Every structure is written in C-alpha cells, then in structure tokens.
Amino acid sequence: MASIVLIACLAILGLIIAIALFLAGGYLWWRHKRSQLQFIEPNEDEESSSYSLRAAQDIVDSGNPPTKPQVPVTHAITTPLQNNINRKLNGFLSLRTPLIGGSGASQTKPQIISSLGNPGDGTTKDSANKSISMTDMYLDSTDPSENVGQIHFSLEYDFQNTTLILKVLQGKELPAKDLSGTSDPYVRVTLLPDKKHRLETKIKRRTLNPRWNETFYFEGFPIQKLQSRVLHLHVFDYDRFSRDDSIGEVFLPLCQVDFAGKQSFWKALKPPAKDKCGELLSSLCYHPSNSILTLTLIKARNLKAKDINGKSDPYVKVWLQFGDKRVEKRKTPIFTCTLNPVFNESFSFNVPWEKIRECSLDVMVMDFDNIGRNELIGRILLAGKNGSGASETKHWQDMISKPRQTVVQWHRLKPE
C-alpha cells in the first residue's frame, strides 16, 4: 500500500514538473517573440498615417538606381498579395510615431525635395526648417576623437509607396572588442526622434570587416515627414554573457539626402561619449551700444540621472566672472523629474565693451535635493580665451564678431 502511495506521489510530482517546464518554455518563447515584434494597437485619436517597419531577409545589392522617382524600386511592395506574403515571412510591425513639431504631410503627387528646399514652395521651406531643428538636436559636427571604423549603407525612396529603403551593406576596420582580437558586430537602426522602436541586423561572428547586406523598409513615410527624421546607425559588439559593447555610431539627418536617386554613403563611426552628463542648448548676444550681455538657456537633453527614480530635478546656476573673481549670480527655476528640461530663461549682464574679452560665464547644471546638498550634473565655461572646450570658446568669439546677433549652439556638459 505504501509503495502505491509513493508511486502516485512521484507521478503527480513528475506531472507538476512537466507542466512547469512547459509553461517556462512557453513564457521564454513569448518573451523572445515579443522582443522582436512589439505590436501596438493604434488609437483612433492618434495620427492615422503611422509608419511601418519591416526587416527583410539578407539580399545582395543589385541593379542601378532609378533615375526617376516615379519608377517603383526593385524590392518595393506593389500588390496586396505580395504584401500579405511578406507579412507572413518577415513579420509586420506598425508603430505609432506622430510627426514632431509639424502638421500632417500631403500624400498626393510625389515631389523631390532637396535639403535646402524650393524657394518658391512654402511647404518645402517649412519642412527644411523642421529638419534643421532636428539636425541641431542630434548631429554632432565634431571630428571623431579616435578611429573606430567606417560603415557603408545606401538610401533610396519609393515615391509610389512612400517607403524609405535602407540597405546596411558592410563595415570596415572596426576595433577588436573580444580577447580573440575580433568582434561580433551588428547594427542597430533607429529613425530619431523615435528611440523606442528599433531594428537590428544579424550578428557577424569574429570579423572586423563585416558584410551584412540587409535591407530595411520604413513604410508609410511621406517625403515631407521623412525630412524631419534623423537616421541613427549604431554598431555594437555582441557579447553572450555580458552587455553588448558599443563600437561607434552615425547620425544622418534625412533632410540632407537627395532622394531623386539611390544614394550610397561611407561614414566614419564616432565612438560613444564617455562620462555623458548631457547637453545644453544656449544662446549668446552682446549689444555694444548699451553694454548688455544676454545669455539664454533654452533647453537641455539627456542629462545624467542623479535620483533613485532614474531622473533628476535640474536647474541652472550662472556666474559672471572677471578672471577668477565671481561678480554676479543667476538661477533658473527647478524642473522636477526630467532629464530633458526646457528652461527658456534669459539673463542679462552689464559688461563694458573693453572687458567683454576678459569676462566669462560659468554655467552649472545642478540637481536639486530636498535632503542633502545639491549635486552638479555638468558644467561649461563660456569664455573668449580659456573656455571649457573648443565649442565654448568659438561660441564666445562668434558672439563678439556678430554684435547684436543671437548665436545659438549646443554644448556638451563636462563632469567637473
């Protein structure tokens, strides 16, 4: 009798373990699929012209680029039947991304819009202005501090299907990130300012000169809307047991691309910035007639988190200095729980023309704490001679060379 009870207990225990393993396997499979495709149901009040992303299989770059935008590209989707087949083979991801800072674009007759726009077309000019603001937000014009390789890719636009076609072709002279003297590189693709949804190429094992030859389709993008986006290609080294290492990245504002034909690019990768504190957008203006120096703090982005909740409570403290002597202090209000505050605060200082080259502005972005001392997030020194960096010194010199004009510039915050 005891043996029968023991056998029954073991059978029940085995059944429970089998069910648990089955559920765990199903959960892991669901997590894997969910990480690849995250379906988001569109709301009725959202913008109806959302875009779609579809990662195609590896293909080899072939054929000459079309000379006219009205001719459909080779790999474009032209029929509903092909659409359904490709949805089943490659997956289909519809993502909601409302146009940043602009109205909906017309999808009527295709137009070729250059990066400068058409002077006679107000809509084109407005699109160019939007793209310039996006360029200021994401483009880093500084030279790479070290060589981390290059990336080769191409862009073309299917006017008939309002689809951007990106081909990530190859990389060259990437740095070794593994002990074996090689890397396992792959490319992460995003269309900024949307950072949430991204696509990735396949991983190429043990190589410093990878050939990906993969194509990505960004569907449902009218050309006017596309020009307000910035293409971000970020190359990583895959690690199985630790966090993937960043190799380098490239930012390309799409307003600078001529979509009349297929464009091919070789771009130098820029290494990731170390000790990132964030960036500050500010403007300087000097009026010699009344000796007024005006500093405007517009906004900051990607500030370093100082609080437990992953946010900060930033404000800016500004000191006017003559040499090492601090003369006058100003402060902005505190912005709670944000890493991207919009300050829009202007401070005016009385500085005689003969002393404008000797003074400086010490700009400190601080994190406010109710308990304890306020922490420094990052700072810059705006000065004509000994600024905290080349961009800070150039900003001050541009202000002096352009009196009565407002000079706007982004600055990387320094840790100390």
From TrEMBL:
Q: Which GO terms describe its molecular function?
A: calcium ion binding; calcium-dependent phospholipid binding; clathrin binding; phosphatidylserine binding; SNARE binding
Gene3D superfamilies found in the cross-reference section: C2 domain
Q: Which InterPro entries match?
A: C2_dom, C2_domain_sf, C2A_Synaptotagmin-7, C2B_Synaptotagmin-7, Synaptotagmin
Q: Under what name is this protein listed?
A: Uncharacterized protein, isoform D
**What are the boundaries of the region Disordered?**
104-124
One GO term of the biological process aspect:
calcium ion-regulated exocytosis of neurotransmitter
| SUPFAM superfamilies recorded | C2 domain (Calcium/lipid-binding domain, CaLB) (SSF49562)
What is the gene name?
Answer: Dsim\GD24386
Q: What is the lineage of its organism?
A: Eukaryota, Metazoa, Ecdysozoa, Arthropoda, Hexapoda
PANTHER family named among the record's database cross-references: SYNAPTOTAGMIN, SYNAPTOTAGMIN-7
